[in-house]
Write a structure and sequence with these properties.
By secondary structure, the chain is an alpha/beta fold. Helices cover 29% and strands 28% of the residues. The chain contains 17 helices and 34 strands. An 11-stranded mixed sheet has the order 14-7-8-6-3-15-16-2-17-1-30, with helices on both faces. Strands 18-19-20-22-24-25 form a 6-stranded mixed sheet. Strand 27 and strand 28 form a beta hairpin. Helix 1 packs parallel to helix 5. The protein is globular and about 105 Å long.
Amino acid sequence: MSKSLLEELPGIVREGRKEAERILEGLESRHRVRLQTREWVLPSKDAMATDWIAQAGRRTHLSEAVDADWHNRLIYGDNLLAMAALLAGDENTPSLRGKVDLIYIDPPFDSKADYRTKVTLPGVELEQRPTVIEQFAYSDTWADGTASYLRMIVPRLVLMRELLSDTGSIYVHLDWHVSHYVKIALDEIFGKSNFRNEIVWSYFGFKRSTARKFPQKHDLLFSYVRSDGYFWKTQYKPHDAEYLKRFRPDETGRLCRSDVNPTGGGSRKIYLDEVEGDIVDSVWDDLPPVNPIAKERVDYSTQKPEKLLDRIISSSCPEGGLVMDIFGGSGTTAAVAEKLGRRWITSDLGKPACMIMRKRLIDQGAKPFLYQAIGDYQVETAKSHMGRAFRIGDLSEIVLSLYGALPLPAEENPLRNLGQIGFGGKKTLVLADSPNKLTGDATLRRAIAQRDNLMGGWDRVVVLGWNFDPSIGQSLAALNDPNLQVLVIPPDLLDRLRKKGGIEKLRGQVRFSSLQYLTLKPIRRERAGEDEELSVTLDNYVLLSPEMVNLDEDNRAKLQRVLSAEPLALVEYWAVDPDYDGQVFRSVWQDYRGNAGSDGDPLRVVRQARLTVPARNGPRRVCVRAVDVFGFESEVVQDVVETSR
């Protein structure tokens, strides 16, 4: 007989603690999880008028970035691994254990909803099903229902407690689906004595008629503290109309009312301008949800209003303190923390959420921040799935098997990363590259040499890669080899493998996409005194395998029409680094769909960037990065020689 959820709960908490403890024990390991900085964002969005004000703003952000000893962080990837990296620290940032002043999380609610992602392109609207990795974050579909949800949240709560400072607080935002079960887990992890509030956020709006129950119109927020010495600042809201009726102007014109002195000293005057307001209690019925035409709306299904986060941050985080939200979603926590002068860290498992957050922060002119990803994400995921004894060769064998290739003999295949496919009398060599390195020109040339020479030669070679050198597109164009194909290993492969429970259950369901790439027109560079102007123009965007996008046939046909007519319409966001060092991409200019300050076209990015930068002698390495509407990233680098005006 199966156990009830209440009977399972102690075991779930116990196993969640053990999982978190294993992570904590590995923090000092040589192979500890690290964060890789994908982009150093210095918000300076494109505007129709590139005047001296915009240039001054760009220079200000550059100086802020150089002088700052702290950079806010937007992290893409599994938040369990992100927190492990933050706890471990690295050469650039010490461990944040016990350093976070406030944690707010709004995790998915186990609502069994089946969200779809709508992508609007010129003339068409596509409906895309989320990838498996995004369904984990958004669709709220869990294999074992609420039990799976609790297994997900418990180890994360344990790590959050480790990150929280002695004066810190945590707010966990839930609804009726799992709130009461999570409350029990919170009591176990943070201690019942550290529970401070059950806050009812009663969002008002149109009430729909429901069958046989009262309409649902509130969420719950549980707040806990790390210790008795927690930071707190009482919050006030305007007095209601009935209270204000008690006040009358006195002989000076000031509004006041008389109050009986409880010590027996007679009546005393209370002046309205000396009363801070009505103290906010645990029922918040004065904060409306984000309405459809609100300026802050970013079209994210679970977006929370900025006033909600303003109240939480103002009450529980000191000025200059550090706020963290590991289920970033629409980015409200980071956006409000930025406006209130608090430092912030946010993360999300979904590419769409990270794109929305990045655009939102750029749009509000945020201070420079880092866009980071989990270092060796696939390796870490493999270790959690296959055990710490995992080796890269194990992962290569899995990739080859799912692609449909049989391994080559061991004597010809010491790294276990080569396979073969025979079909129609043709022989294909398959190389599965390592997730620990970038697949680039050297890998391609080695693959061609193996195709031509290994075991008597092959008709063609396919290279399967996880991460790619920025110049991979240029390498492919230069090689111009029709018998060389490069495919992308799905980044959520191991998550899917873990969910399915084995290779056999996943076989035939994995698609390896072709590389998408961006091309530029030759960049123009003109000197003007101590400055120089760069003119960067997009040329073309190629999505070689639209079948990789999770669309039905009707939507796929719509996508093909857009690709044929206007491929650059797929670009969601692009940025320019005028001095790329090959390591960290410094984004000093950005444009994105919906940027009202550029060309006013909500469905297209501008195709040309004009930016003024300090002049430098010799060639200039310019890098452009783009993200398309499906979250695929591409990059192109040009070395631009100096010219004079």
